[in-house]
Write a structure and sequence with these properties.
There is one protein chain. With 227 residues, the protein is an all-alpha fold. It is built from five helices and no strands. Helix 2 runs antiparallel to helix 3. The relative contact order is 0.06.
Length: 227
């Protein structure tokens, strides 16, 4: 009797764990419907199928837990172990968590559909109002155009402000570089012999330039002569 009871307990627990795994897989699929940014106004066939499977599998797990509880109650106090009691309590907790998760996801989908339907109704009312009031529709169109023009002007003003700021920054940098150059020239003029040294460097550059120019002219004349 004890052996058959233990075998039945093991089989029922295996079925319960398998159904819990299947539930997790179905929740992964069902949560994707609730995570959509634009929930469709009506549930799709796939969503309805997954929801029905979830409800069915939760009911099957409820029945399995009831069988486990009856099997545990039929055992004597000596053969009934604390481990089995803990296993049964754990299966019940997981089932309750999954029921709460299903309710949460269904509420999220319902809220999303209510928002989608509300927006759809508002758009329908606006379209109907514009259809019955052409002058109001034209006025709304002109207001929309005015808002777009104002936005364009705001963007242009922002770009111009940035351009003026960059131009002012460049002017400040030029003034700073000019002051630095004047300070360097002033400091150099106060050092004895620096002006003559700068003059000699300039004369040497001019001389090198003249020599280079003569050499290039000579090469050009020789090229014409030997053609």
């Amino acid at each position: 009797m004890t052996s058959s009871t233990g075998s039945g307990w093991a089989q029922l627990r295996q079925q319960a764990r398998s159904l819990e795994t299947q539930t997790e897989t179905l929740f992964h699929t069902y949560s994707q419907f609730a995570s959509l940014s634009n929930v469709p106004p009506k549930p799709t066939e796939e969503e309805l199928r997954v929801e029905a499977e979830l409800k069915d599998i939760l009911e099957r797990r409820e029945a399995l837990i009831a069988q486990l509880s009856r099997l545990l109650d039929s055992e004597s106090a000596l053969t009934s172990s604390a481990l089995k009691q803990n296993n049964l309590s754990r299966h019940r907790e997981i089932l309750q968590d999954h029921r709460r998760e299903l309710s949460r996801l269904k509420a999220t989908l319902t809220d999303g559909r209510n928002r989608a339907n509300l927006l759809s109704n508002v758009r329908s009312d606006i379209d109907a109002y514009r259809s019955s009031n052409p002058s109001a529709a034209e006025a709304d169109y002109m207001l929309d155009e005015r808002r777009r023009i104002d936005n364009s002007h705001s963007m242009a003003d922002s770009v111009l402000s940035q351009a003026y700021a960059v131009n002012e920054s460049f002017g400040f940098q030029r003034e700073t570089l000019g002051n630095i150059n004047r300070k360097i020239v002033g400091a150099a003029s106060q050092i004895p012999g620096i002006n003559s040294l700068i003059g000699r460097i300039g004369a040497k550059r001019r001389r090198d330039g003249i020599i280079l120019g003569v050499f290039i002219a000579f090469c050009f004349l020789m090229l014409l002569f030997f053609r």
